[in-house]
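PROTEIN DESIGN WORKSHEET
SECTION A - STRUCTURE
LENGTH: 396
TOKENS:
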């Protein structure tokens, strides 16, 4: 390995304004964790908070906690904490359900806002599979035709028949960052509505939902937001759409008078319309506690470190790994890169298994992609240098 690159890593870590955040997480000594794009690390303070939730709020207060501990208002309260991380206004984000359920709500809701003569839904062909499955179901349910296109081909396909477009902000395989501002503008100029999946971007880079006028967005909270396995997702509905948002899942929690137990559905106001059934309080409050690590953190600083980390990792890979053994499928241009590096490699599953045994944890996507997620709050430059070195030792 290179003393120069190891020295560069040490200098970059010493100058890192986010370095202190690493101590907030439960991480093993000697392990480089580069899978935060699948499951974020545990913030150290969350177990104590959950002990209190379980022993006192549930164990002692029991039913009283819906009011006295704020359980009932948690979906909107936590939504307001996520809002600044995705550039949204207060009152536009609600937390609850899975990403898949929220994609369904958002896409059907968008189609119902579109003119009736708009009979097409466009979907990102490279999307995470669930989004495609949900889009196909939403198209059948609303009587629309579904067209799957590469993100680069979507602008040219827009027209008077387009009702809504569902796109991933960051491609989960390659780490490619799609141009949210430009694509949203093109979609809306065509008279359609834009629905964005933020699973691989929220918490890793600025999103700017409000600035760019995005119509709907969804995202998970267990990746860069560190909410825990299966933590609830969120739904964003732009403020001026909320009074017309016609959810396809009208549950009692989103009723204007949920405890009136009326047979006729009447939607509540604001973000509450995105609720469906009883919130998963334990997971939700774990997420709320996990979000404390963001107090005082600038998302712009996170983005700057993310790009520096991925640049440095690619530099180390090029220096260490024998030529021809791997090739990057992640764009080199910063404007086109999320917060992961994906490398094409033969026998990727075996290589990643061996890397994990050597203390470098990433993941792979069949058939031949190694994925390394760089979470700026707890990954450092020495981690990136070591990961490249271990990869080279395996492939040398």
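SECTION B - SEQUENCE
RESIDUE ASSIGNMENT:
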């Amino acid at each position: 390995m290179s003393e120069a690159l190891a020295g560069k890593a040490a200098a970059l870590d010493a100058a890192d304004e986010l370095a202190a955040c690493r101590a907030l997480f439960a991480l093993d000594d000697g392990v480089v964790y580069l899978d935060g794009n699948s499951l974020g690390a545990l913030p150290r303070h969350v177990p104590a908070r959950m002990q209190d939730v379980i022993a006192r709020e549930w164990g002692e207060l029991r039913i009283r906690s819906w009011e006295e501990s704020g359980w009932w208002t948690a979906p909107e309260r936590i939504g307001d904490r996520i809002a600044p991380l995705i550039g949204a206004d207060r009152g536009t984000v609600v937390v609850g359900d899975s990403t898949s359920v929220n994609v369904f709500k958002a896409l059907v809701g968008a189609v119902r806002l579109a003119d009736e003569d708009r009979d097409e839904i466009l979907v990102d062909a490279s999307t995470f599979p669930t989004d495609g499955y949900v889009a196909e179901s939403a198209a059948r349910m609303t009587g629309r035709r579904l067209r799957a296109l590469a993100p680069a081909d979507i602008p040219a396909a827009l027209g008077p028949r387009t009702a809504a477009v569902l796109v991933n902000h960051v491609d989960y395989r390659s780490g490619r960052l799609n141009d949210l501002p430009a694509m949203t503008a093109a979609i809306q100029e065509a008279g359609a509505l834009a629905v964005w999946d933020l699973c691989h971007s929220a918490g890793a880079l600025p999103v700017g939902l409000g600035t760019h006028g995005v119509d709907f967005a969804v995202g998970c909270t267990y990746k860069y937001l560190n909410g825990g396995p299966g933590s609830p997702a969120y739904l964003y509905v732009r403020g001026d759409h909320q009074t017309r948002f016609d959810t396809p899942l009208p549950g009692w929690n989103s009723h204007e008078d949920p405890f009136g137990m009326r047979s006729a559905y009447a939607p509540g106001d604001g973000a509450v319309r995105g609720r469906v059934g009883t919130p998963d309080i334990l997971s939700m409050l774990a997420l709320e506690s996990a979000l404390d690590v963001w107090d005082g953190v600038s998302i712009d600083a996170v983005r700057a470190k993310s790009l520096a980390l991925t640049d440095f990792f690619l530099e180390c890979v090029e220096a260490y790994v024998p030529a021809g053994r791997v090739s990057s499928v992640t764009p080199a241009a910063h404007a086109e890169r999320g917060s992961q590096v994906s490398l094409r490699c033969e026998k990727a599953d075996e290589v990643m298994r061996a890397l994990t045994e050597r203390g470098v944890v990433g993941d792979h996507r069949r058939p031949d992609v190694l994925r390394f997620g760089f979470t700026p709050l707890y990954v450092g430059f020495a981690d990136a240098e070591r990961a490249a070195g271990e990869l080279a030792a395996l492939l040398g």
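SECTION C - NOTES
The chain has a mean pLDDT of 98.
The two ends are 12 Å apart (CA to CA).
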